[in-house]
C-alpha cells in the first residue's frame, strides 16, 4: 500500500506543490485584502485546488502505462482502488491543514472566533468528498481519457447535492432537533454532520468503484 501511495505522489507531486502554492497565495491575498463574504469561497477554493492533483492520478497512470503494470505486482485490485481513495483523502487533509493554519492566523490577528472556520470548512469538505465520490467510479467506468468531462460532471453534480444537503442539514439540526445557532455545541454538531455525510457517501463510492474496477478489462 505504501508503494501505491508513493507512486501516486510521484506521478503528481509537481502539480501538487504548484496548487498548494497557488492556494496559499490566493488565501493570503483574499484574507488580507478581500471582503469577509469571500471567506467561504476561499475555503472551498483552497480545498479544491489542493485536491485536483489527486483527481489526475488515474490519468497519469494511464498515460505512463502504470495502470497495466500495477496489475503484475503482488497487489489485488481492491488495494489499487483503496490506494486511489486513500491518496485523495491524504491530499484533502493537506488542504484542510493549509486552510486551518491560514485562517487560524487570520482569526488571531482580527480577534474573531475560530468557530467561523468550522462552519465554513465543513460544507466544503463534504463537497470535495462528493466530487471524489463521483469522479473515481466514473473514471473507472468511462476511462481516464474522459477525465476532463468527468471532472466537470462530477463537480456540477456535487455542487447540486451539496446545496441540497446544506438545506436538509440546516432544517434537521436547527428546526427538527431545535439546536440553538448561538451555542458552540450546536455549531459543532451542524458542522460535523456535513463531514459525516461526506464520509459515508465516499465509503459507498469506494464500494461501487471497487465493483466497477474488478470487472474492468485492460
In short:
This protein is mainly α.
Which features would summarize this protein structure in a list?
8 helices, membrane, 218 residues, 84% helix, mainly alpha
What does this structure look like?
This protein has 218 residues and is mostly helical. The protein has one domain (2-214). The chain has 8 helices and no strands. The chain has helices at residues 2-33, 39-55, 57-64, 66-69, 77-110, 115-142, 147-176, 184-214. α6 packs across α7 (147-176). The protein is globular. The mean pLDDT is 83.
What's the helix and strand layout?
Elements: H1 2-33, H2 39-55, H3 57-64, H4 66-69, H5 77-110, H6 115-142, H7 147-176, H8 184-214
Keywords: Membrane, Transmembrane, Transmembrane helix
InterPro entries: ABC2_memb-like
Protein name: ABC-2 transporter permease
Amino acid at each position: 500500500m505504501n508503494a501505491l501511495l508513493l507512486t501516486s505522489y510521484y506521478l503528481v507531486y509537481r502539480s501538487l506543490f504548484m496548487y498548494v502554492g497557488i492556494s496559499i497565495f490566493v488565501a493570503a491575498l483574499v484574507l488580507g485584502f478581500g471582503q469577509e463574504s469571500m471567506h467561504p469561497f476561499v475555503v472551498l477554493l483552497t480545498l479544491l485546488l489542493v485536491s485536483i492533483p489527486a483527481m489526475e492520478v488515474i490519468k497519469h497512470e494511464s498515460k505512463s502505462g502504470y495502470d497495466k503494470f500495477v496489475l503484475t505486482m503482488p497487489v489485488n485490485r481492491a488495494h489499487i482502488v483503496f490506494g486511489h481513495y486513500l491518496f485523495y483523502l491524504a491530499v484533502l487533509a493537506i488542504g484542510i491543514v493549509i486552510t486551518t493554519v491560514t485562517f487560524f492566523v487570520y482569526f488571531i490577528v482580527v480577534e474573531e472566533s475560530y468557530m467561523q472556520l468550522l462552519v465554513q470548512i465543513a460544507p466544503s469538505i463534504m463537497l470535495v468528498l462528493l466530487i471524489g465520490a463521483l469522479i473515481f467510479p466514473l473514471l473507472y467506468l468511462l476511462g481516464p481519457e474522459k477525465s476532463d468531462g468527468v471532472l466537470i460532471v462530477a463537480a456540477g453534480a456535487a455542487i447540486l447535492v451539496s446545496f441540497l444537503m446544506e438545506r436538509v442539514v440546516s432544517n434537521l439540526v436547527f428546526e427538527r432537533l431545535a439546536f440553538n445557532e448561538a451555542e458552540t455545541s450546536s455549531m459543532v454538531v451542524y458542522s460535523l454532520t456535513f463531514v459525516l455525510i461526506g464520509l459515508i457517501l465516499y465509503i459507498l463510492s469506494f464500494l461501487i468503484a471497487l465493483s466497477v474496477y474488478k470487472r474492468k478489462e485492460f
